[in-house]
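Friendly challenge for the regulars: who can give me the structure tokens for this chain first? No prize, just bragging rights.
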Amino acid sequence: MNDQHRATEQVLQNEYELQPPPRWLLTLVIGGLILFILGTVSSILIFRDVLRPGQQQRVVNVLPFMEAFLPRYPGVGAALPTPLPTYASGLSPDDLLNIVLVSPTPETIPTVTAQPPMTVLPVSTATSTATLEPTITPMPTSSVTETPILSTATPTVVLPPTANLYGFSYTRQTWNNCGPATITMGLSYYGWQEDQDFAASFLKPDDEDKNVTPREMAAFVNEQSGVRAITRMGGTLDLLKTLIANGYPVIISIGFMPEGYDWLGHYRAIVAYSDYSGMFYVYDSFLGNGDNGEGIAVSYDEVDEDWRQFNRNFIVLYRQEEESRVSQLLGEYADPQHAAGLALEVAQEEARVNPQDGFAWFNMGTSLAGLERYDEAALAYDQSRRFSLPWRIMWYQFGPYEAYFNIGRYEEVLALAAANLNNGGQYIEETYYWQGRVYAAQGNVQDAVRAFNTALSINPRYSAAQEALTELSGS
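First reply, four minutes later:
Bragging rights claimed.
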């Protein structure tokens, strides 16, 4: 009986095990799996194609594996598109290496848009002593080991071996915000209390805007802070030291490739230097401000190599009443045209030493564009694009657009703009502005208006786009 009972139980158990699961359960499982797959794919597509870069970065900060789904851009080693083979100017690259500029220093400095006019002091054969002014609380102090001596005749400066500026408040940048953060640090030397968000609201209303130019930074200082600023190209290490030794903060534009990143444009505030160690000391909104807030030590050679990637552009900050003194310290650099000529000479020499130096040719083009010598500038940019340049360089420097446009090479402008839009540069207002300029020149008013409006949607303060749009509507 027991055996028969056990046999019956075994038969029932086998039948139970062989029965398929209920159809509703199978449908539920398959449906859930399909929904999971669709949800995952949709999430990835939204992450990749809908979210803005800042939003994507916040997701990656929480879920690092999502970085694998970010759009793929050219990457390390990629370069700008080569120039179109349809243009002949009658010039050769060798001609550019032999340009000689004869331009006497003017008695007065031309006014630069959004920058204060500066009067050059009369040249004197006497040697005068430039004494640092005493600090007035709550203004910061500077420290030098001896008094700088300025000769306006040469102009030559006998510099102290070390100098330090004190009183900066360090600001660590938020997402994509090195320009506003660095100008905030520079202004803090003069007691500025606003934060980087205040600067960003003026400089880049759209937080995805990839670039704030030195001119925009200077305009912000001049219009919003009560302090004054000018920007010039072609600076030197000695000029940086001169300004620091005399108590003036300087911000420089550099090429920057921190660990784990491709090449980027960046700003740094110079706060000190030491000839004994061969170092500048910098406040860097991304890397920090060094031990005890003394600044991160960067060798003179490294500063110059990174700086030259932006034609050694600098911004100097000063009080309004010290304008003539700053002009005297700048010497030839007080005149923006003369500064461009000096930058050109340095770029020429670097190209002679290394004819395959893409940055040297690019800087030559930028200097010539600043002098409105557009045929020569275009040739220099052509030459630069035959060698290695970072693919992001057109996120930050727009001289090629200006040069090519002004000599009618419209397809070249559109090709560079298209490359920018395809490599993550869709949040750069200048890209759309130069597109619009070409469309307007070609009589394509509808596309021109659309391009200018897109530029203004990124930065409503972009006056060049607004002026171009107004001109179109009135024509």
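Residues 103-155 have pLDDT under 50 and may be disordered. Residues 452 and 465 are 5 Å apart (CA to CA). Your move, everyone else.
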